[in-house]
Amino acid sequence: MDEPSGDPVHGGELQWGGSVPVQSLDPHFETAAATARVLENITQGLVRVNWEYELEPLLAESWESSADNTELTFDIRQGVSFHDGSELTADDVLASFTRIEEGGGVASDYMQLVDSMEAPDEYTFEMELSEPFAPMLSRMATSDMHIFPEDLAEEDTITEPIGTGPFQFESRELDSEFVMTRFDDYWGDELPYLDTVVKTEIGDDDNRLNTFNAGEVDFINDVPPRHAANLEDDPDVDFINRFPKSLVYLGVNCNEEPFDDIDARLALDYAIDKQEVMEGALYGQGQVAASPAAPGSEWEHPDLQPREQDLDKAQEHLEAAGYPDGFEVSFQIPEQYNDQVTAAEVIESQVSEVGIDLNIQLITWSNWLSDVYTDRDFEATTSSYLALWFPDAGFHRPFHSEGAFFFTGWQDDEYDELIDEARQSYDMAERAPLYHDAAEILQERRSGHILLYWTPTLMARTTNYHGEVMSPDGSTFRFEDTWFQ
């Protein structure tokens, strides 16, 4: 599409057709990407990532690290208002981080290395670490460590978020609609341009696309991959492809039979043709995965390849595990993710050739979060996590035994030690090989995550809606610098 002529203009209501419903509105405790996509525009952190994949100041005007990387000092931006009219100070930062640390927030594992936090004056915040911890600043750039007003941060549960972002929370109808409106006192110059963003929850891919084609919404995310080529050639549509978005995996419960046995896990892995799964699920729009490192990143293993399908080896491992005729397990799939439903159907067919019977059970995303992720009441499942730009997100959170997203029960002391060592290193030449070794362990010792494929973010919008809506790492949306013309 041609670049818009003229300057951005204020006003307008964006109608967004969303793919997955917003869950909890508390960024400190919510892991769902759908929540992060709206809260990115409402709450903010001290820093955020830019398009060079570097950290830039946000609510902190600047920061300094001590020579040994154990002391961080932030100069808090002055003149910033919360949506309730109160002014941002260092006390709000201290209260927010204390809430994460003491309340067991998603980023609480990061806070375990914090010895002390102080707000010596209104606009200075200090954090002292027990040891060097390279991912800390990167984690501060995620919604997991966004800042609330001090009084709100003292609440156990937050149902109406109050932040410093360009938009403020207006309303929500669960599984139906989410509305945010322009914050007129936003500190960021003339931003935002839009008056209102209305997200209508349209879980079915085809319904969402049909709603867009009918002119009822201006922007949709998660375009069905099978329609990507047609939309890309349509002069009346601005089609957007950002890669990678997330890593889709098949997860197994390593604490229960049969997957407490590595041979059973390897048998399942060898029975899957991952290229065929990706082609079926994404119509060739993705990439088969070999490791948790985002494709093209410095953390990606230069030689590691996905495990190829080998039915003879699958049979050998079935016999070694004591299941020569295969086994039967439930296969719980979050129904909102249509590509995962298709992937599950392809996998079900493939592995049946060696006697593995995966009984697909479609469940809601909220049930997946409660039953599979929280209660760990599952045998096999699929899900995904965002392809964030810093390696700790991919290597620690899902796989480390103390990771925030750890749920399959697979534990490996050597793997944990490698990741712990990598977290202390600020030298790229030293750090990258540690992640390469960790990726080999995940594959060779068959972790509870069988990596399937990387997905892109496929979006479509009307040609009069302009500006960059995607965040640099592809994890969420930023509507502040978008407009109608």
The percent range for helix content is: 25-40%
Radius of gyration, taken over Cα atoms and rounded to an integer in Å: 23 Å
**Main sheet: strands, sense, barrel:** 11 strands, mixed
* CATH class value of the largest domain: Alpha Beta
Unreliable stretches, pLDDT < 50, 5 or more residues? Answer: none
Estimated structural class: alpha+beta
Terminal Cα span: 14 Å
**What fold name stands as the CATH topology of the largest domain?**
Dipeptide-binding Protein, domain 3
Total strands: the figure is 19
Verbal overview:
- By secondary structure, this protein is of the alpha+beta class.
- The protein has three domains: 10-25 and 165-236 and 463-485, D-Maltodextrin-Binding Protein, domain 2 (3-Layer(aba) Sandwich); 43-158, Dipeptide-binding Protein, domain 1, CATH 3.90.76; 244-456, Roll (Dipeptide-binding Protein, domain 3), CATH 3.10.105.10.
- The chain has 15 helices and 19 strands.
- The chain has helices spanning 33-39, 90-103, 108-111, 136-140, 150-153, 205-213, 228-232, 262-270, 274-282, 311-321, 338-351, 365-374, 391-395, 413-424, 428-444, and strands at residues 13-18, 47-49, 55-57, 60-65, 71-76, 114-121, 124-129, 167-173, 177-182, 196-201, 219-220, 237-252, 287-288, 328-334, 357-363, 380-386, 449-462, 465-466, 483-484.
- The strands form four sheets. Strands 1, 8, 9, 10, 11, 12, 13, 14, 15, 16 and 17 form an eleven-stranded mixed β-sheet that branches.
- Strand 8 (167-173) and strand 9 form a beta hairpin.
- Helix 9 (274-282) runs antiparallel to helix 11 and helix 14 (413-424) packs antiparallel against helix 15 (428-444).
- It is globular, with a radius of gyration of 23 Å.
- The model has no long low-confidence stretch (mean pLDDT 94).
